[in-house]
Design goal:
5% of the residues lie in helices and 36% in strands. By secondary structure, it is mainly beta. The longest helix has 7 residues.
């Protein structure tokens, strides 16, 4: 397991909140928390979505990205997940990290200050060098798509 330095700026509305943190020794994702006002939780109704602030901005090293992924506990307990999972944060982005949550559950969900709402996974980036060709090489699968390799 390797470690890279990611610089974090706490924004004024996130000053008292914890930085992203790993919850176990081998966790791939660090938890992000909601930076909503303590006296004004954000309610997400069934079928609705909301952009939730985290109160931080990050500076990733060149050649890396951060992926915003759902937390399985929120998904199984409340039906709350990241709508654009995984959301991508590029190395040159310096704005606030925000999480686009959607409620697929049957009840409204209150997002409170400091609530763990998503995971942040930092990963290396490979860029493709795209080339147009007249034909692609053949494979045994061919153009078989959705469900073509079995149930």
């Amino acid at each position: 397991m390797s470690t890279i330095e990611v610089r974090i700026a706490r924004l004024p509305h996130g000053e008292d909140l914890p930085l992203p943190s790993y919850q176990s020794a081998n966790a791939a994702g660090a938890d992000l928390v909601a930076a909503v006002p303590a006296d004004a939780p954000l309610s997400i109704a069934p079928g609705e979505r909301a952009l939730v602030p985290t109160g931080i901005a990050i500076a990733l090293p060149e050649g890396f990205e951060a992926q915003v992924r759902p937390r399985s506990g929120l998904a199984v307990k409340h039906g709350l997940t990241v709508l654009n999972a995984p959301g991508t944060i590029d190395a040159d982005y310096r704005g606030e990290v925000q999480v686009l949550l959607i409620n697929h559950g049957r009840e409204p969900v209150a997002v409170t200050r400091g609530m763990r709402i998503a995971q942040l996974v930092v990963a290396p980036v490979s860029r493709a060098d795209f080339h147009a060709v007249p034909a692609l090489d053949r494979t045994s699968r061919g153009a078989g798509g959705f469900g073509s390799t079995g149930s």
